[in-house]
Design goal:
Blueprint (H helix, E strand, L loop, with lengths): L3 E7 L5 H14 L4 E5 L5 H11 L8 H25 L3 E5 L2 H11 L4 H12 L6 E6 L2 H11 L10 H17 L4 E5 L4 H16 L2
Helix pairs in contact: 1-8, 2-3, 3-4, 3-5, 4-7
The structure holds thymidine-5'-phosphate (TMP).
């Protein structure tokens, strides 16, 4: 039996990581086999590549180089963690996945959509999420939250215009793929956001 693959997407400071942990707790308490993972990273090799991506100067890599590094990490993560978990019937919750590349490197940066689409075809080879929750928050609000939180700052330092473009990029993805994607208003209180998350997940998987 194949498991279920749920990705959490959105800009900086949208509260994804808190929400994904709450969902993992809820599903684990209900008896499901849950794998909570993240990108870039999620496997030892991909975590090594993550260090290259999230540290250093904002212009350390071009958008195309970033795309290739993201996809090298993603392939390792898929081969070693995500596909084996899905094959044994687990629910995989992934904090960011391929839509982040479309939004950050494509809409925010200047990586060609044709390159990203080709990588999706060949590298994902059909391993796409069953459900994607897109956490939406005004870019300025999210960046302020992220600055207070600290942590990996390379992408946060790219400027408000970049973050507004990637917010629009995420919303465009959700509009084009309404069957896979549900937009969550992340500006609400954590409890209200979790209610929306649970509503989307329980509806989609009939829980
Ligand atoms: P995190 O802060 O959510 O752990 O993610 C690390 C950073 O990596 C975040 O600023 C978004 C960025 N990122 C991309 O630019 N492209 C991608 O494909 C992924 C997965 C993340």
């Amino acid at each position: 039996m194949r498991g279920s693959f749920i990705s959490f997407e959105g800009g900086e400071g949208a509260g994804k990581s808190t929400q994904i942990r709450s969902l993992a707790d809820r599903l684990t308490s209900a008896g499901f086999d849950v794998v909570l993972t993240r990108e870039p990273g999620g496997s030892p090799g991909a975590e090594t590549i993550r260090e290259l991506l999230v540290n250093g100067e904002a212009d350390r890599w071009s958008s195309v180089t970033e795309t290739l590094l993201m996809y090298a990490a993603r392939r390792d993560h898929l081969e070693r963690v995500i596909r084996p978990a899905l094959d044994r019937g687990a629910i995989v919750l992934c904090d960011r996945f391929s839509d982040s590349t479309r939004a950050y490197q494509g809409a925010g940066g200047d990586a060609p959509a044709s390159l990203i689409a080709a990588l999706e075809d060949h590298v994902l080879a059909g391993s796409i999420p069953d459900l994607t929750l897109v956490f939406d928050i005004p870019a300025a609000v999210g960046l302020e939250r992220a600055a207070n939180r600290g942590g990996a700052a390379r992408f946060e330092s790219k400027g408000l215009d970049f973050h507004e473009r990637l917010r629009a990029g995420f919303l465009t993805i959700a509009q084009r793929e309404p069957t896979r994607c549900v937009v969550i208003d992340a500006a609400d209180t954590p409890q209200a956001v979790f209610d929306s998350v649970w509503d989307a997940v329980s509806t989609r998987f009939d829980l």
